[in-house]
Amino acid sequence: MGTVPTGVRGLDALTDGGFPRGSTVIVEGAPGTGKTTLGMQFLHHGAVSDGEAGIYITFEEFPDQLYRDMLAFGWDLRKLEAGNLLRVVAMSPDVFLEQMTEPGGLLEKMIRELDCKRMVIDSISLFRYGAADQEEHRRTLYRLRNILRKFELTSLLIKERGTSTDVSGFEAYISDGFIALQLKQQMEKYRVRTLEILKMRGKRIQEGEHVYRITDAGIHLIPSRSMVEDRSLLKGQTKVPTGIAELDRLLGGGLAKGTVTLLDTNSKANYKYMISTVLANRYEAGDHILALLSSFNTPQDLKRMFAMQGLSLGQIAREDRIYFIEHYNRRYPEGCEANVIDVSGADSREYRHILRERFGPVVEQGLERGDSWFIYYDLNTVISERGKDHVMKFFAEETASIKSLGMTMMVMCNFSEIGPECSAYLERTCNGVIRTWVDGNYQYLQVTKSPNGVISEPYIVETTDESPFIRLM
Ligand SMILES: Nc1ncnc2c1ncn2[C@@H]1O[C@H](COP(=O)(O)OP(=O)(O)OP(=O)(O)O)[C@@H](O)[C@H]1O
Ligand SMILES: [Mg+2]
Questions:
Q1: What domains, with CATH codes, occur in the chain?
Q2: 197-221 per-position pLDDT tens digit
Q3: Which residues line ligand 1 (CB under 6 A)?
Q4: Most buried one in 147, 149, 184, 213, CB count within 10 A?
Q5: CA torsion, points 253, 255, 257, 259, in degrees to nearest 10?
Q6: What region holds the KaiC domain (predicted)?
Q7: Segment 80-125, tens digit of pLDDT
């Protein structure tokens, strides 16, 4: 079918290149939101960049005014008209419909003459006034849509927002795309223009409201979250898959090796599955694991979760493939005891000392063999046992040495519990941040920071009966 670029770069990025060719897209917005500007940008871009002729139908404005307004964006409409790449037609809605439906009528002639590909109608709201009732209005729109299709025009139908003449949902129903422009009050102080794509047939769209500005070059849209798939993979960087398919896709293959990723989660969120899934996957991928489990996530829990994935925690420990940092003096499953680094009761200095003494040699032996390490670190435990000061003082140093050894680390933390200052510090220190939270009956997950600058949209976390037990929707 092909895609028709709109000339609004951010909008094209959100719609995977532009509108589907031949589609009818409604742009709805209150007065002054930039509908006319968007429509003209679409036609101007088509004419100048793609050599596609367009027709602009206006029921309200005098062309002279329009020419002047658009010249402010550097769009010389008269020149395009002279080159047969544009027609601006001012007429009444009644005449338009009459001419449009009449075979060989004025519009059909014009479309054929120009070999017109794009059309903007400003605005379809006015048809309502000529219609006897809603039923007739619907018929009119339906007829219009069919005519636009017949001529294979990619068209943008402008619609006023918030008039009492709304035919609720019908336009959205018959159109291929629906875009809403809004001027929103934000934080009481300033207003922000937002664009939302509510529908775009045959396209993967990015949900949410995206901010745009009207600049000297027309509409400039900034997608609220960068497109993830398109920019995947930092070249040459080794990825450490988590085993959660959608998360790995979001991350361009997985966590980047030798980086620290923070997982921010509130205690209600069901994260145990996630952790055990990631750890089990890292084991199966050949990693050595160091785990610091929280007071909620007991060694027995982990054993059970591993068993659900067909793995024996004791066996893995006997292979020296997993070690534990233990703060609560808990009993570990059979086979694990020798690999537990007990730090319960140790103060900050002793803690660092014990880790160096016990873990240092393990790492060094493995370095020669080229072992790869995955560290799971529950920072809430460290904070509650050693205090925020310990973290603020040592975390950057600890993570720096972990990174320098090429180890990959996932840090669990609850931002809402540790306060803004410490959260901000951690967010800066870590290479990536994944947030999960519970809202109502759903758990959500979003990548809010990643080494290659990619940010995802929020996903719903769904628990499933089979490994890997969680799925992102
Ligand atoms: N060069 C410019 N820079 C910044 N803003 C501009 C510029 N030119 C126009 N605007 C703003 O663009 C808005 C008008 O855009 P436009 O006429 O496309 O809106 P509209 O949705 O068609 O409005 P209406 O419903 O009244 O027809 C105004 O708010 C105006 O202030
Ligand atoms: Mg307008």
A1: 3-222 (3.40.50.300), 230-472 (3.40.50.300)
A2: 989 998 877 777 888 999 999 999 9
A3: 29, 31-37, 72, 214-216
A4: 147
A5: 150
A6: 2-235
A7: 999 999 999 999 998 998 898 888 888 999 999 999 999 999 999 8
